[in-house]
Amino acid sequence: MSAERLREEVLARARAKAEKIIEDAKRQAEEIIRKAQEEYRRRLEEARREAYHRVVSEENEKYIRRVMELNMEVLKEKNRMIKYIEEEAKRRLAELSPEDRLVSLKVLIQDALNTGMFTGKFRVRVRKEDVELAKKALNELGLEAEVAPDLDGLGGVIVENDDSTIAVDNTYETRLEQAMKAVIAKLNELVFGE
Q: Which of 65, 71, 84, 132 has the lowest tally of Cβ within 10 angstroms?
């Protein structure tokens, strides 16, 4: 088997595994969102019923004040759900197995390189705990690069060119931040119709 074919097979397997991880993460995120929506709707309906019976007998000014209070409760609940989803995602990222972390690093490195911004030597910045996995990922991808153990946090990579003028931040925190924007938008759409 030629080295190129072996490399292609390794890349194909890595892509397949990465796609499975991504699909699993999407399914898990959808399940978290679904449960959060159900709980939110149940609580919102309960809060609305209770508020309605009190407000009917109150003056108009009291009614308006209560509606404002309910809107604040809804926003707090929304923020609580968002915080829960984010904390759960961080927990799962922190608990990635070495095998899953290796696949993830390979995907993140390849994703950065696929931007087309890197033409020469490049550096991969990782957490010190991920140095060996990053080296293995580069090796499996058939790439050579310096691995700098200078990141903190949950993990992921920052890929930068040799003189650090171009960088792609594919850290888990950055990716999670991007994903959370989508989650918040979807939550607003599903719950608030925004």
A: 71
Q: Is 159 within 8 Å of 69 (Cβ atoms)?
A: no
pTM for this prediction: 0.61
Closest by CA position to 138, among listed 5, 16, 1, 14: 14
Q: What is the CA radius of gyration of the chain?
A: 23
Other CB atoms within 10 A of residue 183 CB: 20
- State whether residue 110 is helix, strand or coil: helix
Q: Which of 75, 71, 153, 141 is nearest to 113 (CA)?
A: 141
d(CA 108, CA 152): 16
Angle at 123 between CA 119 and CA 124, to 5 degrees: 120
- Is the Cβ–Cβ distance between 32 and 83 less than 8 Å? no
Burial of 17: CB neighbours in 10 Å, binned 0-12, 13-18, 19+: middle
- 46-84 pLDDT, tens digit each: 877 776 766 556 666 777 887 788 778 877 888 888 899
pLDDT tens, position by position, 78-127: 888 889 989 999 999 999 999 999 999 999 999 999 998 888 899 999 99
Q: Within its chain, how far is the Cα of 17 from the centroid? A: 17
